[in-house]
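# step 3/5: fold
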Amino acid sequence: MHFSTLALATSLLVSAFSSISAQELKAIAYVSAANSEVTGTISFSQESKHGPTWVYANITGLTPGDHGLHIHQFGDLSNGCISTGPHYNPHNETHGGPEAETRHVGDFGNIFAQEDGTAILNFTTHSLKLCGKKSIIGRGIVVHEDVDDLGLGGTPLSNSTGNAGGRIACGVIGYPSI
């Protein structure tokens, strides 16, 4: 009797996971800063658990020019953006640009702010996942003060952070309410 209950429960879990994994997965991060006007949203969508992830960012209040944008290890904002930790790097790679063969999973490169401070980024990637062991759900996302050198700067910080400077806005990647 105990075995059949366990088998039924396992069957129900497999069935539930199969129907969930067949649906589109979505996530969102609301970024803001304690000491500036920088705010925005970063949306993530993945049609299936093995498919590419679409990323759309819309951020306002930035100084004109390029700003590094990265996923960070922790979704902890208890000490502001600094408590998000280092870049999310589950494969133990060096920092790189979004097109580089060797890079951190969440190395998005730069987001370009227009003269009015608005920046939009829209791309798809196979490196981000919204489910599974290496999901980005619950991790931090950070907008940096400076240009990301994409790991090409030739300094120790280039290999770990892209010399992107201070953290000017951040948020936590989570499931949307709808």
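# step 4/5: annotate
The beta strands are 25-32, 39-46, 53-60, 65-72, 78-81, 107-113, 119-125, 140-144, 167-172.
# step 5/5: archive (pending)
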